[in-house]
Amino acid sequence: MNKTLMAAGLAVVLGACNSTKKGDVADTAVVNPFFTEYTTPFGVPPFDQIKVEHYKPAFLKGMEEHVAEVDAIVNNPDEATFENTIVALDQSGELLTKVAYAFSGQASVNTNDEIQALEQELSPLLSKHSDDISLNPKLFARVKSVYENQAKFDLNKEQKKLLEETYKGFVRGGANLDADKQAQLRKLNEQISLLELTFGQNTLKETNAFQLVVDKKEDLSGLPETLVAAAAAAAKEAGMEGKWVFTLHNPSVMPFLQYADNRALREKIYNAYISRGNNNNANDNKDVIKKLVTARLEKAKLLGYEDFAAYVLEENMAKNEKNVYDLLNKIWTPALAKAKEELADINAEIKKEGGNFEAEGWDWRYYFEKAKIAKFDLDENEVRPYLELNNVREGAFYVANKLYGITFTALQNMPLPDPDAQVFECKDKDGSSLGVLYMDFFTRPGKSGGAWCGGYRDQTYKDGKRVAPIVTTVFNFSKPAEGQPALLSADEAGTVFHEFGHALNGLFADVHYNGVSGVPRDFVELPSQVMEHWVFEPEVLKVYAKHHNTGEVIPQAIVDKIVKSGKYGQGFATTEYVASSLLDMDYHILKEIPADLDIEKFEANAMYGRGLLKQIAPRYWGTYFGHTMEGGYTAGYYSYIWAEVLDCDAFEAFKETGDIFNPEVAAKFRTYVLSPGGIDEGMVMYRNFRGKEPSIDPLLRNRGLK
Q1: What's the pTM?
Q2: 248 and 207 in contact (C-beta within 8 Å)?
Q3: Is the model more confident about 559 or about 95?
Q4: What pLDDT does residue 25 have?
Q5: Which contiguous run of DSSP H or E holds residue 434?
Q6: 99 and 55 in contact (C-beta within 8 Å)?
Q7: Contacts for 54-57 with beta carbons within 8 Å, 24 or more apart?
Q8: Residue 409's beta-bridge partner residues?
Q9: DSSP classification of residue 533
Q10: Fewer C-beta within 10 Å: the chain N or C terminus?
Q11: Strand pairing partners for 423?
């Protein structure tokens, strides 16, 4: 998931505070690292110097400077022009963006009580600050003047797009509303910002609160040695040496559900996982959801839309909710049929073992693994020894080098966002520096769940020279016991390539204005998902899939099993994903929110009313569905499958040439998809690359649904 590469949303996400003390800026200005140019290599944030107390004064000063810059634009006596209004606005807020990127990054990967309290304190002044700009009537008048008189200016394609996006941003931000409605909008924006922040903090607390403590060795039966070792290390760190601790972080809970022979323990950890945010405690998210979808709907109606999905989708490739549901329903039916076939295999395995029960949710992964072994003679634990983390990373670097001629070199003695992080310089094939890439692999209590790609500096131009981006990819893999290698599952190897694809999108970016750097939400996953197609290509496996002990290349027999079994399990994988996509949409097409909305009943009706198998929970129930409730993929979780139509069709472009590293196809993909930001509409960009619109057939074939 691409989480923070776009600057536009940062202020809203972070929010602000209603009051400040005198001296907040002056007291620490002398030592605050944000108030001077970074002197670090490549201009990366000096993580080792930044302290929590530096953020607030830097935010305050950043907003103060931003206001002064906007005032200068508004009070310019000259006629509004593209340069003195649109470009000046696009380049404003440099300090604010600088601190926001550093703070957002650290709040995501190394949060603590102090940072979370600061987020809450800051959450209502940045929201106000953002509204003060987007609802400034004099500023909008100048923007509107340039927009309506653009024929007077000799604008190139990129400049026209910046002007269009700037004007549209003001309109969608409420600039055309009357004073009373703007006041309502301000309150709603503040409320939404706080609710999204609270939801994320609650989810992290719920995830960290649960521990499955095992004190009998026999209860570890079936579990891989690497998982047992990681659980022992987690127990030792928690002061429970001699026991084993399993958590709700995916690298712990998912393999436990897949391999643990103890059914009662599988049930316990499964129920804890799907109940996060729904435990009627201080971190319960049901009321947060109700208030959040209500506030979003009110905002949409205030801006002239019938529901929040309509407001969001207007900016996406999908354009309207009918197109989204059409795609999801087209996939839902064959996926559900495939899932029923898989359930039959699972129940057959239960009977084979003498079980006298029907599979439940906590049985699916366990018995599916047995069914896969029976069908394909492939045990995932056969694969893990060949997927050592650093080797997988090098495999991603290898693919990028073969496609684009770029190289990655490890950097030493660099400031790191966390001691476990790695950092590399990316160079183009001509030796010029494309940017810096951080990779942060391991889970920890202060890190948000999932995986994402973000940034500490976006690519731009300054004084005619390209400013290279600073990109970060973040994962949540289990940290191995000391002295042991980090061995990944096949799915985790895919995640490395996925987020690396986002990183390439950031590193290859070549735009002159911040306002055209972003692409539609349902296009943004194309660069990441297309990279996943190379993970298990035999030619690529032979390069990076080497046994961590012997160095032996993964045997062809295992590769053949991987290829043959690749589509098995897509019923479950597709159904659980589409279920969450439908749930996200169902919340945001509501035209009215009942005062007595029962979150559990609403979600159960939405899922099981469509025929979802009781053994399959949506990938995310609402109470821990951060993609939609924290604002990144609101009415947009469908984007992964929408982009998958594109990425499967895009990989076909390589396969059709007979060369999965075809340099001409790669060059076109870089030129038309990875580099131009949002200068063109998403489908225009895709057609420029492919020469035609995509077909859904490659996706259905890739998932074994056709």
Answers
A1: 0.93
A2: yes
A3: 95
A4: 40
A5: strand 433-442
A6: yes
A7: 54/28, 55/99, 55/102, 55/103, 55/118, 56/24, 56/118, 56/121, 56/122, 57/24, 57/25, 57/27, 57/28, 57/29, 57/32
A8: 425
A9: G
A10: C
A11: 438
> Cα(221)–Cα(304) distance, rounded to whole angstroms?
58
Question: 252 by DSSP, 3-state: which?
Answer: helix
Q: Give me the pLDDT at residue 11, please.
A: 34
Looking at every residue in the chain, the average pLDDT score rounds to 94
Cα 74 to Cα 40: distance, rounded to the nearest angstrom: 35
Could you tell me which of 56, 68, 300 has the C-alpha nearest to residue 172?
Answer: 300
C-beta neighbour count of 692 within 10 angstroms: 10
Longest dimension (CA), the chain: 85
Q: What are phi and psi of 33, to 5 degrees?
A: -65, -15
pLDDT tens for 493-550 read 999 999 999 999 999 999 999 999 999 999 999 999 999 999 999 999 999 999 999 9
β-bridge partners, 425: 409, 436
In the chain, domain spans: 7-176, 210-274, 384-565
Contact 80, 145 (CB under 8 A): yes
**CA 469, CA 212: separation in Å to the nearest integer?**
41
In single-letter form, the type of residue at position 426 comes to C
Residue (of 497, 500, 539) closest to 658 by Cα position: 539
Place of tokens 């043959």: 564
**pLDDT of 309-339, one tens digit each?**
999 999 999 999 999 999 999 999 999 999 9
User: CATH topology for 7-176?
Assistant: Neurolysin; domain 3 (1.10.1370)
Q: How far apart are CA 77 and CA 79, in angstroms?
A: 7
384-565: CATH number: 1.10.1370.40
Write out the two tokens for 445: 């209590």
- Lowest mean pLDDT, pick from 15-29, 231-245, 344-358: 15-29
pLDDT at 662 over 60: yes
Whether residue 21 is predicted with pLDDT greater than 70 in this model: the reply is: no
**Residue that is written with structure tokens 């030493």 in the block:** 412
Tell me 8's DSSP state: G
Q: Which of 395-399, 443-447, 577-581 has the lowest mean pLDDT?
A: 443-447
Q: Residues 298, 188: contact at Cβ < 8 Å?
A: yes
Q: Is 681 a catalytic residue?
A: no
Q: Which of 119, 369, 499, 537 is catalytic?
A: 499
Q: State the pairing for strand pair 470-477/433-442.
A: parallel
Query: Which string of b and e fits 662-673 if b means at least 16 CB within 10 Å?
Result: beebbebbbebb
How far does CA 668 lie from the centroid of its chain? Answer: 25
Structure tokens at 657: 């040439």
